[in-house]
Write a structure and sequence with these properties.
- By secondary structure, the protein is mostly helical.
- The protein is 55% helix and 4% strand.
- Strands 1-2-4-3 form a four-stranded mixed sheet, with helices on both faces.
- The longest helix is centred in the first third of the chain and has 22 residues.
Length: 340
């Protein structure tokens, strides 16, 4: 655990919670044209963070925690915070040291202020995953566990669980993130309202994972990202595009105003079928802006183009979302007749 010298600076946690609740109402005030009321999905976020705090001080609570959270608990211990298997004789001592470390204590305290309960989160996640089950009837809907990791990971997945690092979603104005030297462009999406979309996107990606190798092209990455964004939009029909995409209003406006320019640039420079992974990485990785475009562009702007291509394809073809997810990128591009 890094010994960051950070201070607890209390922000307006009650206001953040109220704003998050308002966002949750938008997530569920659905007028999407589909009725999901009877879809048997109800997400109830389990507060692993609180249970872990209790287990750090109580051997009995530790055995209950191990039974309740199963494989997730062990993966959290070994894969995320790196303190070893819970069956180790020294485990409880090491866990107590971890929970009482400076950074984790601050993270835990802040999380309890911003997320005193999980009611609003349950509402937003349930609405999104009801839609997901509507469009993907055969998809397994995960359980959702909330954790604190000392500002390490935002999302952690197992075969049946989405873990949400609440300390990575405190607020885009949280001063702690600046003290931890987290880049400002990343801080923008470290807010409670992003949790539902981040969870749903991560789960869809895990269910429709695309192997990428040395021969994968920029177009394949674009279309894959476009598919994920398209699914996300249908599952949260009332959410603002800026929230779904993680763009500022200015960045989204830049994309709309420069759609033709970006597309022309990719065509003229023969980038769509580029297999150079370093170049592709610069186009699709998280960054303050897309390297080959203007500094006013968002990072990964080409994925927005991928979304536009997928959107154009779906306007012309009456297929299900599972069928869409199985289609290859070249077919989608050709049959979309995309021409900004």
């Amino acid at each position: 655990m890094n010994n960051y010298n950070i201070k607890l600076i209390t922000h307006h946690s009650s206001l953040i919670t109220l704003l998050f609740t308002a966002y949750c109402l938008l997530f569920t005030a659905c007028n999407s044209g589909v009725n999901v009321d009877d879809i048997p999905v109800a997400i109830e976020v389990q507060r692993f963070d609180k249970d872990l705090q209790a287990a750090a001080e109580d051997t009995l609570a530790l055995s209950v925690l191990r039974e309740r959270y199963g494989d997730f608990f062990e993966y959290y211990n070994t894969g995320l915070i790196g303190i070893g298997n819970s069956h180790s004789p020294l485990y409880q001592t090491i866990l107590s040291e971890f929970m009482n470390s400076h950074v984790v204590k601050i993270a835990y305290r802040e999380v309890q202020q911003v997320f005193p309960d999980e009611k609003a989160l349950n509402v937003a996640l349930t609405g999104g995953f009801k839609h997901l089950k509507y469009y993907f009837p055969d998809m397994v809907i995960p359980e959702v566990y909330a954790y604190v990791s000392g500002f390490n990971e935002a999302i952690m997945l197992t075969d049946s669980v989405i873990g949400v690092g609440l300390d990575r979603f405190l607020s885009d104005t949280c001063s702690l993130y600046g003290q931890l030297d987290i880049p400002r462009y990343q801080q923008y999406n470290m807010r409670p309202a992003r949790i539902p979309t981040e969870c749903l996107q991560a789960w869809v990606r895990s269910e429709y994972y695309v192997e990428t190798g040395d021969e994968s092209t920029l177009l394949q990455e674009m279309i894959y990202g476009g598919k994920i964004s398209y699914v996300n939009e249908l599952c949260f029909p009332q959410a603002a595009d800026t929230l779904l995409l993680g763009y500022t209003t200015q960045q989204l406006n830049w994309c709309k105003e420069n759609e033709a320019f970006m597309w022309t640039y990719l065509l003229e420079n023969r980038e769509l079928y580029n297999t150079n992974q370093f170049t592709i990485h610069k186009y699709v990785s998280d960054a303050p802006y897309t390297s080959y475009f203007a500094q006013e562009s968002p990072g990964k702007a080409v994925l927005w183009l991928g979304y536009r291509i997928v959107e154009a394809y779906m306007k012309r073809h009456n297929i299900t979302l599972p069928e869409l997810m199985q289609l290859d990128a070249q077919t989608i591009l050709k049959e979309s007749r995309y021409n900004p």
